[in-house]
Specification:
Protein name: O-phospho-L-seryl-tRNA:Cys-tRNA synthase
Helix content: 40-55%
Family: Belongs to the SepCysS family.
CATH superfamily of the largest domain: Type I PLP-dependent aspartate aminotransferase-like (Major domain)
InterPro entries: PyrdxlP-dep_Trfase, PyrdxlP-dep_Trfase_major, PyrdxlP-dep_Trfase_small, Sep_Cys-tRNA_synth_arc, SepSecS/SepCysS
Cofactor: pyridoxal 5'-phosphate
Number of domains: 2
Radius of gyration: 22 Å
CATH topology of the largest domain: Aspartate Aminotransferase, domain 2
Number of strands: 12
CATH class of the largest domain: Alpha Beta
Keywords: Protein biosynthesis, Pyridoxal phosphate, Transferase
Distance between the termini: 56 Å
Number of helices: 15
Largest sheet: 7 strands, mixed
């Protein structure tokens, strides 16, 4: 097969088509690059750019200051003993599961865990038992059930689970479970706890030791204003030699990280955005106030927020019977909402969703959130007047 030049041109530049859009997509609001990160992306975007400075261990590069960032700054930021930068939260979770458990062992996940937590465990050959939640409308994780599930596994197998995990917050409803209580329960049975903070690390203040987390996982492209994929893994000193064990044949290479991890733009943009990330975690309660204000506005329109109330996170899930009813008669049906929002330069609610959807108010700002809420009101009024 011969590819001609004309056929190849379609790949030369692909515009995203989101210039100046207000973005409420929960996957993207925390990953929006800072201006410093955008400049850094251009400077360090070439392939293995940072490897020019590597003496054999990527996270020990002194210039640019990756070693200081990974081994000094990030542990202080998370209040944990050891940190590594990984290819993403799921890679971090897999590294912990694969190193802490043997094939066939059980681990405990919250029922609201991201699918990648399940897939990571399955890849490691582990059995999974889940902790239930309360169901609609609150979807609260049953914290006390961690003890119940651990006891059930121990009774059935004669062995405690190798690991437990809580998703903080969960990626569907934005609920923040009582992680300290979960930690106390797990440690009562000598079960280490991993906190998946893909939507918290980089958005809100996180103190792994105060939470009782043995492992803390973060996502750079979801919540740390970095180009991805890139993640973080923080590990308590007790388990660092297990998770970050060295290769017997290549003495300076860590097995679970396949020798070295993130090269180039992802690690460099994470560092470039870091001063901004630290500053915004200090303003977290302003973000919570914005989320609660926005939720209240939408509920006044008949769009009901599910999950914890009052809400303590920017990620929210809504049930919108009023929009679903409109979709039954609107032109092109369930796609009407996406089109109406796009016309108003609002991005983030997936095409075809009307009855249920989730969004994030993180870093959107009160003025833009007012515009989004007003837009929902205008859209509802527009179609209800047609009836």
């Amino acid at each position: 097969m011969v590819l001609d030049d004309a056929a190849l041109q379609k790949f030369s530049f692909i515009p995203r088509g989101m210039k100046d859009a207000i973005n409420i997509d929960p996957l993207q609001t925390g990953g929006k690059l800072t201006e410093d990160a955008k400049r850094t992306l251009l400077e360090w975007g070439d392939g293995y750019s940072v490897c020019d400075y590597c003496g054999g261990v990527l996270d020990l590069i002194k210039k640019p200051p990756i070693e200081e960032f990974v081994h000094s700054v990030l542990p202080e930021f998370l209040n944990t003993d050891e940190v590594r930068v990984t290819h993403g939260a799921r890679e971090s979770k897999f590294a912990v599961m694969h190193s802490m458990a043997e094939k066939g062992d059980y681990i405990v996940l919250d029922e609201l865990a991201h699918y990648s937590s399940f897939v990571a465990a399955q890849r490691a050959g582990l059995n999974i038992r889940t902790v239930p939640h309360s169901g609609s409308p609150d979807y609260k994780t049953d914290v006390e059930a961690y003890a119940t599930v651990i006891e059930e596994i121990t009774r059935e197998t004669g062995k405690a689970p190798a690991l437990a995990q809580v998703t903080y917050p969960d990626g569907s409803y934005g609920n923040l479970a009582d992680v300290n209580r979960i930690s106390d329960l797990c440690h009562r049975y000598d079960v280490p706890l991993m906190v998946n903070g893909a939507y918290s690390v980089g958005r809100m203040p996180i103190d792994a030791k105060k939470m009782g987390a043995d492992f803390i996982v973060g996502s750079g492209h979801k919540s740390m204003a970095a180009s991805g994929p890139v993640g973080l893994l923080g590990v308590k000193e007790d388990y660092a030699d297990i998770v970050f064990r060295k290769s017997p044949t290549h003495k300076n290479k860590e097995v679970e990280l396949l020798g070295c991890t993130v090269r180039g733009a992802p690690i460099m943009t994470m560092m470039a955005s870091f001063p901004h990330v630290v500053e915004r975690t200090r303003n977290w309660y302003d973000e919570v106030a914005d989320a609660r204000w926005f939720s209240s506005r939408l509920e006044d329109l008949g769009i009901m927020q599910m999950g914890d109330k009052p809400h303590d996170h920017d990620l929210m899930f809504f049930k919108a019977p009023v929009l679903y009813d409109i979709s039954q008669t609107a032109k092109k049906g369930r796609y009407f909402l996406y089109r109406e929002l796009k016309q108003r330069n609002i991005h983030g609610i997936k095409s075809g969703l009307t009855k249920y959807f989730k969004l994030s108010t993180f870093q959107v700002g009160r003025e833009n959130l007012k515009y989004v809420a007003d837009s929902f009101e205008e859209i509802i009024d527009k179609y209800q007047k047609k009836e």
